[in-house]
């Protein structure tokens, strides 16, 4: 479902005379449906960079990144948007939303974008918010003023609203208490069980050991 082959990347520092800093070389990764692969390696090793390339946020310098058969490295922006709508979900560490949009709409939005009926999208959003212990009185408010943990749970609810065949998870349990962490781990296990291919960054070692079928240390992809 996700295949990374011979991927390399340089960051070009435009504000420093266009200096090119190589950050990755010969990256390889393969994730099958129903499998969870954890990216490991010290801070700065390139875990987030690889994940952002898979999502199409960072341009791929060299090599192939195929997601459900689409080469993200060569795809047109329109194809990447389609891939994100239907196939590839991404739960980043931080929630980014438009101001004044109610929480329940933030969560339902990926379903509405797929043409799911409004009532159905709303009830799926409400079920996820309930599961993730976001009190009902907050559903009609914008999440912009929520606590860090509440925002993270809204972000997770949004990322799990549609059953994406492939998921990228960046520290999904980072600021959660024990009960909510458990709920999120269960959601991820359910996604695996229905066949989602998952790439995750988990600094939470116990979470990583529980969820990951394999670990890939990105330090191996450091430029020589
Ligand atoms: N937009 C950017 N421009 C220039 N350099 C960048 C950019 N993004 C990341 N880097 C550099 O690429 C390297 C890898 O960073 P990355 O964030 O991928 O590491 P990481 O393994 O995810 O680290 P952490 O665990 O701390 O999040 C770092 O040296 C970082 O400074």
Provide structural commentary.
The chain contains seven helices and nine strands. The chain is of the alpha/beta class and 224 residues long. The chain has a domain at 99-157. Strands 6-7-8-3-9 form a five-stranded parallel beta sheet, sandwiched between helices. It has a four-stranded antiparallel beta sheet with strand order 2-1-4-5. Helix 3 packs parallel to helix 5 and helix 4 packs across helix 5. The longest helix is centred in the C-terminal third of the chain and has 16 residues, at 178-193. It is globular, with a radius of gyration of 18 Å. The two termini are 29 Å apart. Bound molecules: adenosine-5'-triphosphate (ATP). One of its GO terms (molecular function) is lyase activity. It comes from Pontivivens ytuae. InterPro entries: AAA+_ATPase, ABC_transporter-like_ATP-bd, ABC_transporter-like_CS, ABC_transpr_LolD-like, CP_lyase_PhnL, P-loop_NTPase.
